[in-house]
Amino acid sequence: MPAVRGIDPSGETIEVTGRTIPVYRCEALVLGSGAAGMRAVVELKRRGVDVLVASTGLFAGTSACSGSDKQTLYTASTDYKGDNFIQYAEGLCSGGAMNFSTAYIEAVGSIDAIGGLQYMGLPLPHDDRGAILRYQTDHDEAGRATSCGPRTSKLMVKVLFEEALTLGVRILPSCSGIRIVKETVEGKERVCGVIALHREEDRNEYGLVYIQCEDLVIATGGPGELYRDSVYPHHCHGGLGIALEAGIELCNLTESQFGIGTPRTKFPWNLSGTYVQVMPRVYSVGEDGEEINFLKRYYRTTREMVSNTFRKGYQWPFHSQRMLDYRSSLFDLAVFLECQAGRKVYLDFLRNPEPVNEGEEFSLDNLDPDVRAYLENNEALYDLPIDRLRRMNPLAIELYKMHGTDVSKEPLEFAMNNQHMNGGILIDDWGRTNLNGCYAVGEAAGTHGVTRPGGSALNAGQVFGKRVAVAIKRAKNNHNDRSFDPAMMEKAVTDALSDADSYTHEDTGLTTKEVKTEVQARMSDYAGIICSEPEVNAALEAARELRRKIEAEGFQVRSASMVGNAFRWKHMAYVSEAVLTALDHYIANGGGSRGARAICSDDGTQCPEAHSEDLSRFRFIEEQPKDKQEKLVVSYENGSFKISALPVDLTPEVEREFFEKGWGPYLIKEG
User: What is the mean pLDDT of residues 643-659?
Assistant: First the structure.
């Protein structure tokens, strides 16, 4: 990754309660330095906007540290078939809770998104005629996926940073936003700055700084620390908490993605694609050390078991409907139950799967047709899983070797994990939130709907990264320079200092470790792939009680340098309650199983079956068609969470704008 030198400390300061507070000024502030945020940064700078980046950790978030066997970027196909933007958009929003217009924008914008990345140096593989190589991913009917290998998003961040440095973008590393500051302009609230903690700042004990901005782009990623069982890198808290605190609306918080991956205690990583398409032996180990072929309790034949293991490669996220008819998410449920029983689960690439029934040995000649054809097309009909993996994806082996596990010599532990938040900040088709001057992009933005093709989130971040830059530049063309009220700045800083002082001076109060442990356990145990109305309601009541306790007792931290953790875990407690509020409302109003969660009930109409395991307790309620037609919107107002429904338009219609009609207005908008 490129070497990044942060900007010099600001020479401008204010004195507040006897402390020196540095002040930074910019036209646009981008919080976060992942792929989506850096695309916004590059596009803003190219348009002449004075942009500043503030990032908790450069190259430390999900874009730079996450991936899979071949991490996917999902864009309109540019191979010999071409593509159809209407069909692309219909596929994106087919799960519901997403406007067709948003999906169409992501489809059309994907051409510019991928072209810009290629121009900046992203090494996407292509054939000798220039067509980008493609494959099929989850929720992908057309095969629009492409990849640079296990770390596509890291390479995206790399080329975007190189471009930003070439353009001379100002960057504040080790700087975390903790509060959005607002003022009232012409009767409407508008963002005017952000209070942040800068680890390299020593002019006050907390490293507190004030960043004044006309526009704010929240690009802080998803709330990775929300779950105990997660493949997010450590310390990914996201920005949903500071958004809630500022009165910014969130949406689709009921929607996430869960799937198999290696645990956070080792090297958190998705196990999609070739890791399972090579069909390794899957087994669990209990306290007595016995190795158990637990999948044979779920699938009826060896062929059925291994073919569905293979399909986890491109049906990676858990989906309740795929538990039925002995399909691929029955694999997920089986893994989930083994882990709940206290057993560890492994992939063994040195041995083929054990049989389900006696005398029914694994054979490459006894696979479902789609599985056999895939292996034939990739010339991967080798005897052992490790040899099949070497043929199809040798980088997948090297990746784990770099992080302490040599899968050519030892098994790989894995579990069910939270992987992505499909919901987030409610934005319009230009990335604008309900707070004037505030935008959101990437996983922080709730644009993804219920189901999304793998890699479409990376594309959405690039498309909206450009769109928010266009929107900010056009807005600047239409208003005069703003003046800022210094009293507003001083009051906001005073309030933040008061909170920080309370965290360091109190002998009582909660510790951040206590809050973290409680929040993560509650979310993993009661808001994962298996949910029920009584358990979600009880979890919500516990989350409300935790928030009230935080507000009444506060935090206690050991030193001034730790106050950032207190602010972050206060925000995470709010986010947890927001998610549970949405989930509880959804279930109480008849919401059924969709996307990442099975809503289990004795009144359910569908139930997974297994070869020799009683799964009647996982009878679940079907999704209600009406729920596809709306987004659930959550906001924090006057000390409590409010929830409402926002209709979506799934009509696949696009009004064409002809050149002569649209050229003039375009030029006027661009200034």
Answer: 92
